[in-house]
Amino acid sequence: MNLLEYPDLEVLIMQIRNASGFDFSGYARPSLLRRASRYLTKNKLTLPQLISHLEPESDIVFDLMQEMTVNYSEMFRDPDFFIGVKSEVFTYLESYPGLRFWVAGCASGEEAFSLAILLKECGYLDRSLIYATDLNNKVLTAAREGVFTLSNVRTFSENYLLAHGQNSLSDYYHVSYNKAVISREIRKNIVFSLHDLTGDGVFNEFQFISCRNVMIYFTLELRQRVFRLLYESLSMLGFLCLGKRETLRYSGIEQNFRVVDTVLNIYQKIK
């Protein structure tokens, strides 16, 4: 049950913006409402109490922002996507002397690690650099460590096999203190850094951008702004990958792409 009503949420969004400069106004309201209510419940706060603590640069501002951003993922999530990337994208990129990949909204690094493993098995990892970004510093810290529970890794291993992995996922991690730690070889070509898709600009040019299951939390206006950023970050003939519930329709840039796969939502920039 939500503790907040939508008018309360608008007040909270304004207070967060005033205290931190981060603007949640373009995010879909139902998800924000659930997460803000959960934060109040978890911390045993009322809305007035929370607002009274939202001072610029305060710990509680950033703690609330971490709670209100979406951080769930799995390694090799949607295994057919990775099969499609290998067959329809990597074969096109194999002639490039150097490759730059961007995993936007990387959460705890699951997709970045999956991509690195796929590149390793295809022989491209040594000439690839993966930028993995998120606006949530807490999950980025976890991503840099590359540590997962063994129960999560069992799910990851099932996904890996369904994605036609060439080996065993256990070849890419070691177990320490009942945790799985992603190997140094897989992590070394990944750069994890803070980046806000809704407010920050272009920071490099990429042959491949994965921004999966991120747009569904944005309003149409914000999606269009983010799509423009992704378009400007792609090299000509670069590939853009979206989640299965997402689409380039109404993005304002759909005419600049050809559809590589309508089911997996893989697109290639053509102009």
TrEMBL record:
PROSITE patterns given in the database record: CHER
Source organism, top-level taxon: Bacteria
Domain CheR-type methyltransferase: 1-270
SMART domains on file: MeTrc
The EC number(s) this enzyme carries: 2.1.1.80
Enzyme class at the top of the EC tree: transferase
GO BP terms: methylation
MF GO annotations: protein-glutamate O-methyltransferase activity
Protein name, UniProt field: Chemotaxis protein methyltransferase
Protein species of origin: Dyadobacter linearis
Gene encoding the protein: cheR_2
